[in-house]
Amino acid sequence: MTRAEFERYLAAHPHLLTPFAQERRIWISHLPSVQIRSFTDYLGEAVGCSLVCTQMEPELEFVFYDPQAPGNSENELIELAHERAGDLDLQRLPLAL
Q1: Could you tell me the sign of the dihedral formed by the alpha carbons of 83, 28, 94, 97, in that order?
Q2: Is the pLDDT assigned to residue 89 strictly greater than 60?
Q3: pLDDT at position 58, please?
Q4: What's the chain's Rg over C-alpha atoms?
Q5: Is the link from the previous residue into 14 a cis peptide, with omega within 30 of 0?
Q6: What are 25's strand-pairing partners?
Q7: Is 51 exposed, middle or buried, given 0-12, 13-18 or 19+ CB atoms closer than 10 A?
Q8: Alpha-carbon distance 2 to 94, whole Å?
Q9: Which parts of the chain fold into alpha helices (H)?
Q10: 33-64: per-residue pLDDT in tens?
Q11: Residues paired with 6 in a beta bridge
Q12: What are phi and psi of 6, to 5 degrees?
């Protein structure tokens, strides 16, 4: 992904950065895996910090997040991914070690 393609993506999704300002994470579906690295870099520049990108089950959404922010631990992201998918039975969720 080029810088121009990233800028077009942001223009097409004008509210993309709003959740990041509040939660220090953004969930995105349908992004080609070959673009993840450059997208992560450009997005990090746009929000002013280094980001980590992880693809989360069960919906296989990508989450771009500030790993230093509260609420963005691996276990918390697993719980959030399942909540987003409608799987609210957290008793059954595998937790990261």
Answers
A1: negative
A2: no
A3: 86
A4: 14
A5: no
A6: 65
A7: buried
A8: 37
A9: 3-12, 17-23, 36-47, 74-84
A10: 899 999 999 999 999 999 999 999 888 899 99
A11: none
A12: -65, -45
3-state secondary structure of 54: strand
Token pair, residue 51, equals 């980001």
Measured CA to CA, the distance from residue 95 to residue 87 in angstroms comes to 14
Exposed e or buried b per residue across 59-88, where buried means at least 16 C-beta atoms within 10 angstroms of its C-beta: eebbbbbbeeeeebeeeebbbbbbeeeeee
Query: How much is the pLDDT for 4?
Result: 97
Contact 40, 2 (CB under 8 A): no
Question: Amino acid identity of 49?
Answer: C
- Give the residue from 91, 70, 71 showing the smallest Cα distance to 80: 71
Relative to beta strand 52-56, strand 25-28 is unpaired
From CA 66, how far away is CA 39, in angstroms rounded?
Answer: 14
